[in-house]
C-alpha cells in the first residue's frame, strides 16, 4: 500500500473531492419531489371526463402542490436574509497574498448561514478560489467558548480555524459566536429560526389536513387555509421583529461593508401567507352565499350534506312539538308510542280475523283507554 496512488518520485496524489457548492441540494430535492408529484397528476388528468371538471381539478391540485412547496422551501431554504460585496481582502493564514475583486456572499436560513468566497483567476498561483461553507446553529445555545459544551456554530468556527479556512469566511462566522452584553446576533438568529421553523412545520401539518378536508367539507378547508396563511405571516413577524439588532450587524471589509437584507424565501413566505389568508376567507364567504357554485368547483355534492342536515332539523322540530307538557299528555304520548310499535303486525292480524268471521273485531283495552283519555284532554 506504500506505493498506492503514488507516481514515483512525486508525493501521494489524491483525486479531487467534488461537492455541490454551486447549488443548494436541499432546495433542489424539495422542488424535484413536488414536481414529480405534479407530473404524476398530469399523467392521470386526461382520464377525467369533461373539460370543465378537468380544469377545476387542475386548479385545485396545482394550488395545493404550490402551497406545500412554498411551505417546505420556506422551512429549509437558505435565503431568508442575503448580502454580498466585491472587495479586496486577505486570503488566509500564513500567506501575505491579498485577493482583489473578491466576491463575498452570505445566505442565511432558519438553521444556519452559508458563506461563499470567490475570486478571479490569477489571484493565487495554480489555485482556484471558490469556497462555499455552511455553518449551523441548530438548536442549542451551548456554553461560552469553543469546547465540547459550546454551541454548534462555535465548535464549527474553531474547527474552521484549525483547518485554515479563508479569513473572510472566519471573520463573518465569528460575529455569530459572540454572546455578551448587547452583541448577541447568533442567539437572536438562532431563536428566530427555532420559532419560525416550528411554525412552518405546523403549517405543513395543517396543509395535509386541508387537502383532506376539501374533499368533503369546503368551509372547514377554507378556515384551515386561512389559519395556514395567518401562521406564515406570524412567522414573518417573528423573524423580522426578533432580529432587530442594536447595534445592527455589519461586516466591514477594506473596500465595502457587507449588510444583510431580506431574501427570496422571506418574500415567498410572506406572499404565500397573504395569498392563503385571502383565498381562505374568499372560500368561506363563497360557501356561505354561493354554496352550489363553490360545491361544483370542488366536486362535492351539496345535496347530501344539506339533505342530512335538513332531515335532522325537521326531526328535532317535530319531536319538540309532540313532546308532552303535562301528566295526561305524557300518558297519551306513551300509549301512542306503544300502539305504533305493534300497529303493523296487529293490523294484519285484525284484517285476517275480520275477513274470516265477517264481523267486527273487538277493540283492545289500551285503544279504548286511549280514546277516553283523548276525549278527556279535549
Automatic annotation (TrEMBL):
<feature type="transmembrane region" description="Helical">
    <location>
        <begin position="264"/>
        <end position="290"/>
    </location>
</feature>
<feature type="transmembrane region" description="Helical">
    <location>
        <begin position="223"/>
        <end position="244"/>
    </location>
</feature>
<feature type="transmembrane region" description="Helical">
    <location>
        <begin position="194"/>
        <end position="216"/>
    </location>
</feature>
<dbReference type="GO" id="GO:0015031">
    <property type="term" value="P:protein transport"/>
</dbReference>
<feature type="transmembrane region" description="Helical">
    <location>
        <begin position="55"/>
        <end position="74"/>
    </location>
</feature>
<comment type="similarity">
    <text>Belongs to the DUOXA family.</text>
</comment>
<feature type="region of interest" description="Disordered">
    <location>
        <begin position="347"/>
        <end position="378"/>
    </location>
</feature>
<keyword id="KW-0325">Glycoprotein</keyword>
<dbReference type="GO" id="GO:0005789">
    <property type="term" value="C:endoplasmic reticulum membrane"/>
</dbReference>
<keyword id="KW-1133">Transmembrane helix</keyword>
<protein>
    <submittedName>
        <fullName>Dual oxidase maturation factor 1</fullName>
    </submittedName>
</protein>
<keyword id="KW-0472">Membrane</keyword>
<dbReference type="InterPro" id="IPR018469">
    <property type="entry name" value="Dual_oxidase_maturation_fac"/>
</dbReference>
<feature type="compositionally biased region" description="Basic and acidic residues">
    <location>
        <begin position="361"/>
        <end position="378"/>
    </location>
</feature>
<feature type="transmembrane region" description="Helical">
    <location>
        <begin position="28"/>
        <end position="48"/>
    </location>
</feature>
<dbReference type="Pfam" id="PF10204">
    <property type="entry name" value="DuoxA"/>
</dbReference>
<keyword id="KW-0812">Transmembrane</keyword>
<feature type="compositionally biased region" description="Basic residues">
    <location>
        <begin position="348"/>
        <end position="360"/>
    </location>
</feature>
Amino acid at each position: 500500500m506504500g506505493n498506492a496512488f503514488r507516481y514515483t518520485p512525486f508525493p501521494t496524489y489524491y483525486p479531487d473531492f467534488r461537492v455541490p457548492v454551486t447549488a443548494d441540494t436541499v432546495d433542489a430535492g424539495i422542488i424535484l419531489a413536488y414536481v414529480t408529484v405534479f407530473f404524476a397528476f398530469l399523467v392521470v388528468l386526461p382520464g377525467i371526463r369533461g373539460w370543465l371538471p378537468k380544469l377545476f381539478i387542475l386548479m385545485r391540485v396545482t394550488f395545493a402542490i404550490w402551497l406545500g412547496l412554498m411551505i417546505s422551501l420556506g422551512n429549509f431554504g437558505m435565503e431568508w436574509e442575503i448580502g454580498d460585496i466585491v472587495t479586496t481582502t486577505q486570503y488566509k493564514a500564513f500567506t501575505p497574498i491579498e485577493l482583489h475583486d473578491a466576491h463575498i456572499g452570505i445566505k442565511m436560513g432558519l438553521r444556519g448561514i452559508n458563506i461563499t468566497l470567490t475570486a478571479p483567476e490569477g489571484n493565487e498561483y495554480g489555485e482556484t478560489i471558490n469556497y462555499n461553507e455552511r455553518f449551523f446553529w441548530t438548536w442549542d445555545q451551548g456554553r461560552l467558548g469553543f469546547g465540547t459544551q459550546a454551541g454548534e456554530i462555535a465548535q464549527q468556527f474553531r474547527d474552521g480555524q484549525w483547518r485554515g479556512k479563508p479569513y473572510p469566511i472566519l471573520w463573518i462566522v465569528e460575529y455569530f459566536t459572540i454572546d455578551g452584553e448587547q452583541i448577541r446576533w447568533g442567539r437572536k438568529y438562532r431563536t428566530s429560526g427555532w420559532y419560525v421553523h416550528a411554525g412552518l412545520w405546523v403549517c405543513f401539518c395543517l396543509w395535509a389536513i386541508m387537502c383532506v378536508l376539501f374533499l368533503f367539507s369546503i368551509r372547514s378547508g377554507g378556515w384551515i387555509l386561512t389559519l395556514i396563511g395567518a401562521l406564515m405571516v406570524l412567522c414573518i413577524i417573528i423573524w423580522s421583529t426578533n432580529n432587530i439588532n442594536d447595534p445592527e450587524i455589519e461586516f466591514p471589509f477594506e473596500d465595502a461593508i457587507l449588510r444583510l437584507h431580506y431574501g427570496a424565501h422571506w418574500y415567498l413566505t410572506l406572499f404565500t401567507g397573504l395569498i392563503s389568508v385571502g383565498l381562505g376567507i374568499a372560500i368561506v364567504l363563497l360557501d356561505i352565499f354561493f354554496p352550489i357554485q363553490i360545491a361544483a368547483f370542488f366536486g362535492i355534492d351539496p345535496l347530501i350534506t344539506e339533505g342530512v342536515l335538513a332531515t335532522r332539523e325537521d326531526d328535532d322540530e317535530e319531536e319538540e312539538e309532540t313532546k308532552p307538557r303535562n301528566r295526561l299528555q305524557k300518558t297519551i304520548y306513551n300509549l301512542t308510542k306503544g300502539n305504533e310499535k305493534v300497529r303493523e303486525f296487529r293490523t294484519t292480524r285484525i284484517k285476517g280475523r275480520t275477513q274470516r268471521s265477517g264481523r267486527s273485531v273487538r277493540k283492545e283495552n289500551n285503544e279504548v283507554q286511549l280514546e277516553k283519555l283523548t276525549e278527556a284532554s279535549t
